[in-house]
Amino acid sequence: MKHAALFFILTLVLGLFSPSISPAADTRVYELRTYVANPGRFEALLTRFREHTCKLFEKHGIVNIGYWVQIKAADGDETTLIYIVAHPSREAAKTNWKSFGADPEWQTARKASEEAGKILAKAPESVFMNATDYSPAIISGSADKERVFELRTYTTQEGKFEALQTRFKDHTMGLFTKHGMTHIGYWVPNDLNKGAGNKLIYILAHQDQDSGLAAFTAFRADPAWVKAKAESEINGALTVLQPDGVKSVYLRALSFSPIR
Question: What pTM did the predictor assign?
Fold first, then answer.
């Protein structure tokens, strides 16, 4: 009994004085992919994903994160699919795609879906990304109410990327929350030719597009933001000149998207 009691006390003391354990960092490699369909073939693309592709991705180690289409027709909602998947590593991504492409079930599904004509107008666009250290954990599932998503891309001036990251960590994210925006994920590209070192890609959720626009109007007028922005830009703007510096696209989640 004495030994048991001593062990209990020692365990309690070590627990009290041991440093707290932080959640493990998200080390996965994310992939932002954009598909553009030929005229009249977009529904066939969505059907193929819904009935075959997503299931086969999981079979080959590709984790489905979210699938969206753009809200406005002018932005390509009748032709463009935007989605994010995740892999354990960049090398794993290469292996995953190779095994997926060689799967007989995928080859059969692809052939059947293209009997009425080729689906994609061009090769898919792919951006490999890492989660930032301030990105929230990715949570699948739907919200209590239908919502819209906003994909935002910031391109910084040379040498200003770290300052942008600091501003997001110290000010921007908290102010987004204050003004009713929901954080989905924040990523930076892996490759130089895709924006490594000068691009931040992130997704927010809003009740609807009007709410999103109103939230940003209130955010920009917030004295705390005005002060933080001015202090961070004493030596010049952090992002390049518009329209390339900050890009925003409103999206709606598809029925088979894990995040809705």
Answer: 0.88
**170-173, long-range: CB < 8 A, 24+ apart:** 170/228, 171/224, 171/225, 171/228, 171/232, 172/225, 172/228, 173/134
Cα–Cα dist 21/13, whole Å: 16
Q: Let me know if the fold of 29-129 is the same as that of 134-253.
A: yes
* DSSP reduced 3-state for 129: strand
Give residue limits of the domains in the chain: 29-129, 134-253
Q: Which residues pair with 204 in a beta bridge?
A: 150, 183
pLDDT in tens, 166-212: 999 999 999 999 999 999 999 999 999 999 999 999 999 999 999 99
CATH of 134-253, one of 3.40.1280.10, 3.30.70.141, 3.40.50.150, 3.30.70.100: 3.30.70.100
H or E segment at 182?
strand 182-189
Dihedral sign (CA 65, 67, 70, 71): negative
Provide the b/e sequence for 76-98 (b: ≥16 CB within 10 Å).
bbebbbbbbbbbeeeeebeebbe
CA distance 253 to 71: 10
pLDDT at residue 20, as a whole number: 38
DSSP output for 65-116: EEEEEESSGGGTTTTEEEEEEEESSHHHHHHHHHHHHH-HHHHHHHHHHTTT
- Which element (helix H / strand E) includes 247? strand 246-253
What would the CATH number be for the domain defined by 29-129? 3.30.70.100
